[in-house]
Amino acid sequence: MRDFAQGIARFQQDVFPAKEELFTRLAVRHAPHTLFIGCSDARVVPELITGAEPGELFVIRTAGNLVPAYTPGADGVTASIEYAVAALGVRDIVVCGHSACGAMTALAHGHDLSGAPAVADWLRLADASVARTATPGDVPALVRHNVLAQLANLATHPSVARALAERTVTLRGWVFDIATGRVEDLTPDGREAVPAA
Ligand SMILES: [Zn+2]
C-alpha cells in the first residue's frame, strides 16, 4: 500500500493550521450548501474543481456518476441523497460528468464487461442514455445525455421531488474536461422543474 504518512504529516503541519478556525467551526456544524454527485474517477476531484472548502460539498461519487431512479428499499445512494436534501437542506444539486469517463466509454463502445458483472449491471442504469445517443461510440454525447438523465432520475427521489416542488433546491448538470480543466454547464439557468427525460 502506498505510504500516506508523509501526506498526512504535511496536512497536519501545513494545511490544518491554516484552516484551524474553519475546522473548529466544522467540528460542531455540518451545513453544506451543495450536493455534488460525481464519478468515482480519481481525476475528478470535486473540491479542487469548484474551489470549495471543507464543509461546503456533500459528495456522492459513483461509477459513471449514475443515480438510480428511486425505488423503495435500502440503498446507499438514495440514503445519501435524502440525508443531504431533507436533513442538511442543500440548496443546489450538481451532477458532474467528465471527459474520458471509463464507464461511458465502455457503454459507448460496447466493451465486454463479462469479467465485471456488477459493473455491467450498474451501467445498465444508463441504457436510456445510450439509446438517446444518435451516433454509436460518441462518448462526449453520451456523457452529456447521461448527466441530464441523472437529473431526471434525481427528481424521482421523494426528498428531491418535495424540494423541487417547494423551489428550495436547484438541479445542475456539468461536464468536466480533464485535459483543459473546463467545466461545461449544461443547465446554465439551473433546473427548477423536472427535466425532460
Ligand atoms: Zn467516469
UniProtKB/TrEMBL annotation:
Catalytic reaction annotation: hydrogencarbonate + H(+) = CO2 + H2O
Entry's cofactor comment: Binds 1 zinc ion per subunit.
TM segment ranges: none
InterPro entries for this protein: Carbonic_anhydrase, Carbonic_anhydrase_CS, Carbonic_anhydrase_sf
GO molecular function: carbonate dehydratase activity; zinc ion binding
Cofactor: Zn(2+)
Binding site for Zn(2+): 39, 41, 98, 101
Key words, A-Z: Lyase, Metal-binding, Zinc
EC number: 4.2.1.1
One Pfam match: Pro_CA
BP GO annotations: carbon utilization
Recorded family membership: Belongs to the beta-class carbonic anhydrase family.
Job of this protein: Reversible hydration of carbon dioxide.
Protein name, entry field: Carbonic anhydrase
Organism: Kitasatospora aureofaciens
